[in-house]
Amino acid sequence: MTQKKMTFLQELLGFVGLEDRLHLAWISSAEAQKFQKVVTDFTEKIRTLGPSPLARDYQKAVSL
Amino acid sequence: MKDTVKKWLEEKQVDMFLGYKMVHGHALPYCFQADRLDEVDDLVVSRERYSLEKMATHIAAVYPEMKIGMLARDCNQRALKVLDIWDQLKKDSVTTFNVNCCPSPLKNHGDCSYLEPSPVGPVKVELGIDNNMSVEHAEHLDQKERFAHWMYEFSKCIKCYGCRNICPVCFCKDCSLEHPELIRSGGALPTEVPLFHLVRAAHMAGRCIDCGLCEDACPMDIPLRLLYRKVGSSVSDLFGYRPGIDEGKSPFNLIGDAPTTEPRPI
Amino acid sequence: MEYKLVPSICSYCGCGCGVLFEVMDGQLVGTMPLKSHPVSQGKLCIKGWNLHEHVISEERLQTPLLKTNGALQEASWDASIQTTAERFKKIIAEHGPDSVAVLASAKVTNEENYLIQKFTRAVLGTNNVDHCARL
Ligand code: SF4
Ligand code: SF4
């Protein structure tokens, strides 16, 4: 169910211009290294994407 | 049509029939009953579309045994199917008199608001989203543009909740859009843009039957139908399910089904 | 079982949007927009959408409230009208008629609102009268 919902949400968010900011991964409590890797990679990705447009561009977008 | 409805009422095949009748020049939804059989002569198929199935749901909630007859366009029929699947209105209790939508250039019998879309003005083209845009076109706008234009549209929302109230397949008793812990309401309007619309869109997945009533009811002319069309096309692309057309429960209603999609790479 | 849809006009403001009331067995159970209405064209604001709720609301005031000792307290109609009249008289005597104002409501009939403005202008002697439906 989570898998389905997340895939759908990624589609929906992409449609309104908020793509790539949602990620789902299965990590068991025994997989510390995987956890570390996923979190680092995703943090890195978000860093390259920059701050959320919701915070940054909102004022600009509405006053366009 | 009138003869059939009369016959149904007389023979108690239905206890009541929901159709339209002209009152003071307005076509209004009207409940025809056997004790006032003459009135059936005034039955019309109106150009205006109301969600007769929503009214039927309200009636069935109080009188579960009632056999309801109903005038049904294509969208009504789709909504009825979804309501049956979600146990809101069982299909055995509803008898429909199916009519096509009214005339338009696209369909000999078609009157949906979307068959003859009205053109949008220059401000909307410049800043917002053309209500008549196709999902494919909207998907291919550049990310910045897409975001800015959708935010322009969403930020117009006056939170009338009309889109939720009018929707034939919106029936939850406790709506997440009113839940104080899930969505911030009150304070300055409009709040929580774009959460309001995205929450609603996500909840319509597997349910929205693309009737367009929400966009019709939106005082701010937000292209809701386009947003929900995207919801519909995602659900049908990802899970192969089209609400109101395909049989069976929505993919979001089945727990334990093996996922057909994989987590996406970072 | 009786189910009716009654066309009406929203009483909340001066726009006059068309509404359709859902009436089941004599009970108002819902409101929806009147699609063919020339003013509102099938759209409503949140107040119009919830018109039926104040009719059946449990929280509806049944008696007037008088502010006594800094708190609003339930009072009888006679006592409230008496107090209002006395206070009006006193204020007008001290500061003149333009020191009072009357706010009318869209929830009463046209005729009653007419009486309210007549009362304000002719009896109290001021033009300070307004109405929540005058947008
Ligand atoms: S188009 Fe709008 S009103 Fe119709 S089913 Fe979808 S969300 Fe509901
Ligand atoms: S109908 Fe339009 S304005 Fe009203 S809540 Fe929905 S999106 Fe907002």
Any descriptors?
heterotrimer, A: 64 residues, mainly alpha, 0% strand, B: 266 residues, alpha/beta, five-stranded mixed beta sheet, 10 helices, 11% strand, binds iron/sulfur cluster
Largest sheet of chain A: none
Separation of the first and last Cα atoms of chain C:
40 Å
**Cα gyration radius of chain A (Å):** 15 Å
Strand and helix order of chain C: EEEHHEEHEHE
The radius of gyration over CA of chain C amounts to: 19 Å
Whole-number average pLDDT of chain C? 89
The dominant shape of chain C is globular
What does this structure look like?
- The complex is a heterotrimer of chains A (64), B (266) and C (135).
- Chain A is mostly helical.
- Chain A has helices at 2-15, 32-49, 53-56, 58-63.
- The model of chain A has no long low-confidence stretch (mean pLDDT 81).
- Chain B is globular, with a radius of gyration of 20 Å.
- Chain B is 34% helix and 11% strand.
- Chain B is built from 10 helices and 5 strands; from the N terminus they run αβββαβαβααααααα.
- By secondary structure, chain B is of the alpha/beta class.
- The mean pLDDT of chain B is 81.
- Chain C is of the alpha+beta class and 135 residues long.
- Helix content of chain C is 33%, strand content 26%.
- In chain C, strands 1-2-3 form a 3-stranded antiparallel sheet.
- Chain C is globular, with a radius of gyration of 19 Å.
- The model of chain C has no long low-confidence stretch (mean pLDDT 89).
- Chains in contact: A-B, B-C.
- The A-B interface holds A 1, 3-13, 15-19, 23-26, 38, 41-42, 45, 53-54, 57-58, 60-62, 64 and B 127, 138-139, 143-148, 150-152, 154-155, 193-194, 198, 201-202, 205, 227, 230-231, 234-235, 238-239, 251-252, 254-255, 259-261, 263-264, 266.
- Residues 166-169, 204, 208-214, 225, 228 of chain B line the site of one iron/sulfur cluster.
Concise account of the structure shown:
The complex is a heterotrimer of chains A (64), B (266) and C (135). With 64 residues, chain A is an all-alpha fold.
